[in-house]
Amino acid sequence: MKLFHLSEPKYGWIDITFGEPPDAFTQTVSDVPNDCLRDLATATARLLQHSTQEVVQFSLEPSFMACELHRESDSVRVVLRHPNQDRAAFEASFPLHAFAQGVKFELLRIQPFYSIEDGWTQPFPEREIANLM
């Protein structure tokens, strides 16, 4: 069961998928001006350390989509909100530890595409991934 998936990054853009078909949601996001993948790893690690709510901004250039992460006991509710829309574009709950392991696995899987011009131009988030234990 895949709760989280990353495509191969191309020129600073990547498809992020939450959930599984037919209920999956995919959004293409950019690596500038912020590194949303690093920010997602950091936010997920904070949830593992008992934070109850985190928000990550995914760059759509020029606007941002908010990724809200709500810890509810041993699960995480993911709510994705596009700018200027009242309703959530996506909302689902996942087991927290399985979600964290999925984020870690996917970031490690795409590590060869980090810090290169035609991939994900941001540095690889080693420290943040280490906190996903």
Topology:
Blueprint: E1 4-6, E2 13-18, E3 25-30, H1 36-48, E4 53-59, E5 64-72, E6 75-81, E7 90-95, H2 96-109, H3 126-130
Helix pairs in contact: 1-2
Task: Report the end-to-end length measured between terminal Cα atoms.
Answer: 19 Å
| CATH architectural arrangement | 2-Layer Sandwich
Q: Strand tally, please?
A: 7
- Biggest sheet: strand arrangement: 4-5-6-7
Can you tell me the CATH class?
Alpha Beta
User: What is the approximate shape?
Assistant: globular
SS summary, helix count: 3
**Model regions low in confidence, pLDDT < 50 over at least 5 residues:** none
CATH topology term: Secreted effector protein pipB2 fold
Query: What sequence of helices (H) and strands (E) makes up the elements?
Result: EEEHEEEEHH
- Strand-pairing-aware structural class: alpha+beta
- Give the helix level as a range of percent: 10-25%
- Quote the beta fraction: 25-35%
Largest sheet: 4 strands, antiparallel
Rg computed from alpha carbons, rounded to a whole number of angstroms: 14 Å
Counting structural domains, the number is 1
Provide mean pLDDT, rounded: 96
Structure in words:
There is one protein chain. The protein is an alpha+beta fold and 133 residues long. The chain has a single domain (4-110), classed as Secreted effector protein pipB2 fold, CATH 3.30.2450.20. 24% of the residues lie in helices and 33% in strands. The protein contains three helices and seven strands. It has a four-stranded antiparallel beta sheet. Strands 1-2-3 form a three-stranded antiparallel beta sheet. α1 (36-48) runs antiparallel to α2. The mean pLDDT is 96.
